[in-house]
C-alpha cells in the first residue's frame, strides 16, 4: 500500500513541480507593509492568496504548496490544516482495489466542514495517514451505519491525478458539557459552579462503548452506551444505590434526549404515604466541548 500511495503522491507533486517553472506562482506575501491576512468564514478558500497561518473557517493553514497551471486554467497543489474536525460518516475502501487503505466518507452535513478548493465537487472522502491505527479502530464498524470520528491534519490535494485527500484519525475521548447530568440528590441549583460532563471513552466510534458521567456537585457514575435505531445513543449505568438511563439523539454537535434516575439514597412518599425510592425524568442536553476543559481525575473512567 505504501509504495502505491507514494507513487500517486509523486504524480501530484511532479505535476506541481513541472507547473512551477512555466506557470504563474501564487503572489508572494513578502512585500513590506503587507495587508492583514484574509480570514475565510466559510470552508472554501482562495488558492491565489492562501498562505500558512491563514484561517479557513475554524482551521489554520499549516502548509500550502500552490501554483497555477496555465495549461489547466486552474490552481493546483497541496494544503494541510491544523485543527480538530468532528465528522460523521462511514468507512469505505480505497477507489483502487489494488490499494489496501482505510478511507472514510463524511455525510453531507459534516462533510461541509472539510476545507475545499473553489469549484471542488468531489465527494467528501479521504484516507487516513495513520492507516494502522484507523484499520484497528474502525475494523469492527458496520459500513452500512454512520459512525462519529474526529480527525486533524486534514490535507486536501488538487493535482488531477489519483492522489487523494488525507487526514489523521484521533483516538481521543469525546466530551459533552451539560448544565446537569445526574442530579442524583435532586435538581442541581443554577448557582452551583461548574458543569456536568459526559466523557465517551475513545469517542463515539462503533456501536457501543463506555461513558463516564460527572455532575456539577461531583457525583459520578460509569455507564455503557449502545447505538440504537437512527443513531440514537442508549446509556445505562448503576452503582449500589442508583440506576441511570438515557436515550439521546445526536443533533449536530449536541446530544439531546430524556434521562431517568432511580435512586435508593433518597426516598419519597407516594400518594398513600409510603416511602419509595426516588425517581425522576428530565431533558438532558449536552454540547460537544474539548476534553481538556473537563474536570479531573478521569483515570477511573478507563
Question: Gist?
Answer:
The two termini are 34 Å apart. The chain is 10% helix and 43% strand. The longest helix is centred in the N-terminal third of the chain and has 21 residues, at 2-22.
Describe the 3D structure.
The radius of gyration is 24 Å and the shape is elongated. Strand 11 and strand 12 (208-214) form a beta hairpin. It has 302 residues and is mostly beta strands. The chain has helices at 2-22, 131-138; strands at residues 39-40, 55-56, 59-69, 74-82, 85-93, 102-106, 125-128, 147-158, 166-169, 174-178, 196-200, 208-214, 220-227, 233-238, 242-251, 254-269, 275-288.
Spans with pLDDT under 50 lasting ≥5 residues? Answer: 1-32, 297-302
If helices are DSSP runs of H or I spanning 4 or more residues, what is the number of helices?
2
- Output the structural class: mainly beta
Helix proportion of residues, in percent? under 10%
Sketch the major β-sheet: 8 strands, antiparallel, barrel
Let me know the number of strands.
17
Query: What gyration radius follows from the Cα positions, in whole Å?
Result: 24 Å
| Coarse morphology | elongated
Query: For the terminal residues, how far apart are their CA atoms?
Result: 34 Å
Oligomer status = single chain
Q: How confident is the prediction overall: mean pLDDT?
A: 80
Beta percentage is 35-45%
Strand order across the largest sheet: 10-11-12-13-14-15-16-17
Amino acid at each position: 500500500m505504501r509504495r502505491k500511495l507514494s507513487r500517486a503522491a509523486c504524480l501530484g507533486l511532479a505535476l506541481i513541480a513541472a507547473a512551477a517553472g512555466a506557470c504563474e506562482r501564487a503572489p508572494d506575501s513578502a512585500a513590506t507593509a503587507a495587508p492583514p491576512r484574509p480570514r475565510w468564514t466559510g470552508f472554501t478558500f482562495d488558492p491565489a492568496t492562501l498562505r500558512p497561518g491563514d484561517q479557513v473557517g475554524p482551521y489554520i493553514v499549516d502548509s500550502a504548496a500552490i501554483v497555477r497551471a496555465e495549461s489547466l486554467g486552474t490552481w493546483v497543489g497541496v494544503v494541510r490544516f491544523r485543527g480538530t474536525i468532528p465528522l460523521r460518516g462511514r468507512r469505505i475502501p480505497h477507489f483502487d482495489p489494488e490499494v489496501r487503505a482505510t478511507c472514510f466518507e463524511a455525510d453531507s452535513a459534516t462533510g461541509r466542514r472539510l476545507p475545499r478548493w473553489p469549484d471542488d465537487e468531489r465527494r467528501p472522502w479521504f484516507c487516513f495517514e495513520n492507516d494502522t491505527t484507523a484499520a484497528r479502530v474502525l475494523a469492527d464498524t458496520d459500513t452500512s451505519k454512520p459512525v462519529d470520528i474526529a480527525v486533524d491534519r486534514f490535507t486536501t490535494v488538487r493535482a488531477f491525478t489519483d492522489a487523494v485527500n488525507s487526514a489523521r484519525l484521533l483516538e481521543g475521548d469525546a466530551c459533552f458539557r451539560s448544565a446537569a447530568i445526574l442530579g442524583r440528590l435532586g435538581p442541581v441549583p443554577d448557582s452551583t459552579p461548574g458543569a456536568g460532563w459526559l466523557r465517551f471513552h475513545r469517542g463515539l466510534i462503533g456501536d457501543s462503548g463506555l461513558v463516564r458521567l460527572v455532575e456539577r456537585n461531583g457525583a459520578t457514575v460509569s455507564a455503557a452506551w449502545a447505538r440504537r435505531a437512527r443513531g440514537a445513543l442508549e446509556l445505562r449505568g448503576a452503582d449500589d444505590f442508583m440506576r441511570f438511563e438515557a436515550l439521546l439523539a445526536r443533533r449536530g454537535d449536541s446530544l439531546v434526549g430524556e434521562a431517568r434516575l432511580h435512586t435508593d439514597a433518597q426516598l419519597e412518599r407516594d400518594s398513600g404515604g409510603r416511602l419509595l425510592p426516588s425517581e425522576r425524568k428530565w431533558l438532558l442536553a449536552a454540547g460537544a466541548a474539548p476534553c481538556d476543559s473537563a474536570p479531573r481525575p478521569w483515570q477511573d473512567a478507563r
